[in-house]
């Protein structure tokens, strides 16, 4: 087997050893139900409170504003459907963007089928919204604006603070899916005027199956899951104590190591972006060149198909992600890449490489060694590339 290199940290990350170590006692010794009164139950209750404080500290929130969920998809659903239900007497209009994660887009589409109006803002060639478009879209009936903090495919960071200023002035609830941003860049809900924020553990070297929703004090949000009195009667169900502890530890590590990690990611990102630009002709960097996540590189390669590129990279030991939605059984390319104006044939030939804490310069150099050869091999099989070369001579 060739060298194994993992470049798909935007999809999921390995669990940090310290996170796993923190979780293990809550599977074995401290297994009590936190709602019970005996000692091991109270130990668990205290552990949940500590983790809640760790998450709150990461985003500069109050501990009482953090609600644990099964992940960001649940948090997005709860935020959007919850505001739609709680504020329906005020209006039925929601504003989002064309390039959101499907957890947001599909939730909005569900609400459209149930009498709500949704405006999907366009983005520019870098995936950035225009603030004037947002201002012009706001109506008397607008109750929610939901815009992701940073894009999961192309890494573009939205003008979140400015969006928050607009919504705060208009008295509109502002939610952001911050899954990709959390642990990568500083996120301050106070400074950015954020009312609700979704995050998840497995994108920042925490466990899968655990996330959180930040809900600013004063925001009316009804219970999403009904049953017991957990999460201050807002989200029923026995708490996932090991997962909550793991999330708390993961965000603590992320906060303590963010400056050092960012420096490393930016160095590796620059090496990767410049290396591909130098070694592979007829390619395009997707996303904003500056206002992008430090660990994200997304390139489109002309005259190739993304799924074939992924398979051949995997044969060389490299795990990445394609811009085309081949894994979902769809022949359509990414809605994000189409949203930034790429033609279908170019959007289909995209590769997302997202760096993580375990990646090294050697990993980047290995990719730069095998990628040009693979791209060229695929292009040599393309009649479109053959015609292009003939016309170029």
Strands, helices and their partners?
Elements: E1 5-6, H1 17-23, H2 25-28, H3 39-59, E2 66-69, H4 72-86, E3 93-97, H5 102-112, E4 117-121, H6 131-137, E5 142-146, H7 160-170, E6 173-177, E7 196-200, E8 211-215, H8 230-233, H9 241-279, E9 283-285, E10 296-301, H10 306-315, E11 318-319, E12 321-322, H11 335-339, H12 344-347, E13 350-354, H13 361-380, H14 383-392
CATH class of the largest domain: Alpha Beta
Shape category = globular
Kindly give the count of domains: 2
The secondary structure category is alpha/beta
Biggest beta-sheet profile: 7 strands, mixed
* Helix fraction by DSSP (H/I, runs of at least 4): 40-55%
- The tally of helices reads 14
Low-confidence stretches: 324-328
CATH topology heading of the largest domain: Aspartate Aminotransferase, domain 2
Instruction: Round the Cα radius of gyration to an integer and report it.
Output: 22 Å
Q: From the 3D coordinates, which CATH architecture of the largest domain would you assign?
A: 3-Layer(aba) Sandwich
Elements, N to C (H/E): EHHHEHEHEHEHEEEHHEEHEEHHEHH
Strands of the largest sheet, in order across it?
A: 2-8-7-6-5-3-4
Strand content: 5-15%
Please report the distance between the alpha carbons of the first and last residues: 40 Å
**How would you name the CATH homologous superfamily of the largest domain?**
Type I PLP-dependent aspartate aminotransferase-like (Major domain)
Number of strands: 13
């Amino acid at each position: 087997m060739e060298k194994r290199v993992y470049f798909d940290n935007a999809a999921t990350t390995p669990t940090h050893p310290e996170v796993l170590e923190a979780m293990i006692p809550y599977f074995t010794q401290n297994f009590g139900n936190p709602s019970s009164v005996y000692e091991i139950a109270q130990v668990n209750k205290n552990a949940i409170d500590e983790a809640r404080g760790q998450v709150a500290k990461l985003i500069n929130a109050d501990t009482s504003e953090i609600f644990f969920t099964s992940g960001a998809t649940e948090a997005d659903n709860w935020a959007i459907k919850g505001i739609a239900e709680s504020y329906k007497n005020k209006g039925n209009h929601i504003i989002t963007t064309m390039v959101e994660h499907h957890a947001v887009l599909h939730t909005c589409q569900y609400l459209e089928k149930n009498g709500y109006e949704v405006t999907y803002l366009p983005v520019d060639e870098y995936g950035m919204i225009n603030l004037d478009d947002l201002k012009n879209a706001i109506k008397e009936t607008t109750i929610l604006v939901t815009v992701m903090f940073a894009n999961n495919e192309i890494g573009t960071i939205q003008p979140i603070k400015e969006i928050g200023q607009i919504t705060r002035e208009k008295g509109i609830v502002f939610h952001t899916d911050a899954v990709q941003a959390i642990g990568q860049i500083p996120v301050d809900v106070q400074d950015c005027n954020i009312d609700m924020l979704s995050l998840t553990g497995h994108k920042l070297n925490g466990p899968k199956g655990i996330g959180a929703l930040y809900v600013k004090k004063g925001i009316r949000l009804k219970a999403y899951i009904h049953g017991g009195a957990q999460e201050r009667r807002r989200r029923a169900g026995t708490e996932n104590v090991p997962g909550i502890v793991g999330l708390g530890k993961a965000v603590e590590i992320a906060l303590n190591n963010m400056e050092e990690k960012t420096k490393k990611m930016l160095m590796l990102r620059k090496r990767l972006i410049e290396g591909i630009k130098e070694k592979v002709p007829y390619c395009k960097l997707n996303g904003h060149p500056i206002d992008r996540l430090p660990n994200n590189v997304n390139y489109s390669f002309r005259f190739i198909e993304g799924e074939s590129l992924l398979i051949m990279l995997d044969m060389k030991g490299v795990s990445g992600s394609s811009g085309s939605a081949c894994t979902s059984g769809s022949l359509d390319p990414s809605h994000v890449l189409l949203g930034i104006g790429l033609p279908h044939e170019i959007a289909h030939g995209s590769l997302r490489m997202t760096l993580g804490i375990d990646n090294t310069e050697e990993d980047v150099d290995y990719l730069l060694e095998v990628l040009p050869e693979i791209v060229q091999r695929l292009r040599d099989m393309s009649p479109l590339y053959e015609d292009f070369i003939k016309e170029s001579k």
